[in-house]
Automatic annotation (TrEMBL), chain A:
PROSITE patterns: ABC_TRANSPORTER_1, ABC_TRANSPORTER_2. The keyword Metal-binding does not apply. SUPFAM superfamilies: P-loop containing nucleoside triphosphate hydrolases. It comes from the Bacteria. It comes from Caldovatus aquaticus. This is ATP-binding cassette domain-containing protein. GO terms for molecular function: ATP binding.
Automatic annotation (TrEMBL), chain B:
The chain crosses the membrane at residues 23-44, 80-101, 108-133, 139-158, 179-196, 202-222, 234-253. InterPro entries: MetI-like, MetI-like_sf. Residues 73-253 form the ABC transmembrane type-1 domain. This is ABC transporter permease.
Amino acid sequence: MDCGRSPPSPGLSLRIPGFAFAGVPVLGAFALELRGGETTALLGPSGSGKSTLLRMVAGLLPAPAGARIAAADGGPVAGRLAWMAQQDLLLPWLDLLGNVMLGARLRGEAPDRARALRLIEAVGLAGRERARPAELSGGMRQRAALARTLMEDRPFVLMDEPFSAVDAPTRHRLQGLAARLLAGRTVLLVTHDPLEAMRLAHRVLVLRGSPAVPVEVPVPAAAPPREAHDVAVLTAQGALLESLAEATAEAA
Amino acid sequence: MSAVAEAAAPRPARRAAPRPGRAAARALLAGAGLVACWWLFVWATDQPHFILPSPARVAAALAERWDIILGHAWITLQEILLGLALGAGLGVAAALLLMAFPPARRWLLPVLLASQAVPVFAIAPLLTLWMGFGMASKIAMATIIIFFPVASAFYDGLRRAEPGWLDLAATMGASRRAILLRIRLPAALPALASGLRVAAAVAPIGAVVGEWVGASAGLGYLMLHANGRSQTDLMFAALFVLAAMALALWFALDAALRAVLPWQPDRISEGETTP
């Protein structure tokens, strides 16, 4: 099934001179290179600025003066990214197919229906194209959101706790599916789940300190997606959990 | 892809719909009970018929003066429907204007809110003075009374679109126009439906008040006329027809709105909007 994209995704470089919210410094000054075609997971205590950083990259939040968010190939970032949030954000008045083709519809372009149908099949929802979101389970809705994200066919994919609203077994399957379908794209994944980070990410960063800056933590040698029962993954998950606990203590 | 066929426990699509037959039977029974009480009261207190006629007298008046009542009802119905169409159309247009153009918001919104401080009934004589005793002044009255609930409900709906949808649309490169027409507008339709239900309920008030102030036809005129001649039974008969018309209008509109917004009943069953 051809759902991937051919040209390699460029890297993304972020330089943030610090960011304050309502006068309170949230993010410190740092520079970060997201390698092309890799998944970078970003974790941190609540309020550490994970989502703020992600929204800044997405252009949903104005970047502070002096900030630089640039694609490694010199092209623009805006218009080349896809966004997936914690809520599925499916529009209740559109059916599954309409939701998957939303981007083209909003831009006034002719949607590629055949490709949308292929993606719906790839996320295991074939036969439900005409179903409204209310007729789908939470896991199915999140898979629909994944298909909509892939439909945008963008080199950069920004995910904000995309699987946190579903139960653990469903999340486990969704992670495997996402890893397979997102392979080759430059993904920035904000998550609360250490296991999710260790399964899916090439690099794992924890926002630590106050104001927070990203600190890299070691990941298992094997390339993602990694098995949840892999001893190396579990060990790394334990270490990450401790690092997160320390970060939370620092922030408190 | 059977590997990802996780428990697809679809939520119970819709709560068991209330059986319309049973609801209608209940309404009928309650109505019969009220009529019985009315009858009992008239019989027990021996009211003169020009103060409170018995149900039988009202029914007789309805049967005898059927053609007259129907003629006046037709006038009132036209006033209500035209007022509803005009008021709803203007309300929808005003809400879209407020949403699309921030300057309109700054200048028009305070005026709209202030206009609500003027009791609509107080300007009814003015409308009659300017537009005459015909249907125009009544349609204007109904339009004015309907405009505000529709405009405010729809504008609220447009403003309160789920922020996540707006973020998503922004990352997809949607224009402001596309966000308004393809996200905010459909998202606001359930709110608009609530506004229209209120409008359908108040529309007859506008038309009848207009007729009371000065008219040569319509159920309001007929009631005032009958009242002046102590034909209380005829007045009640006209009132009965007016109430039946208002109810029929409300239920027809409600059914139509449910049919065009099939995703909305779910929201009601989840308690997100008041039914």
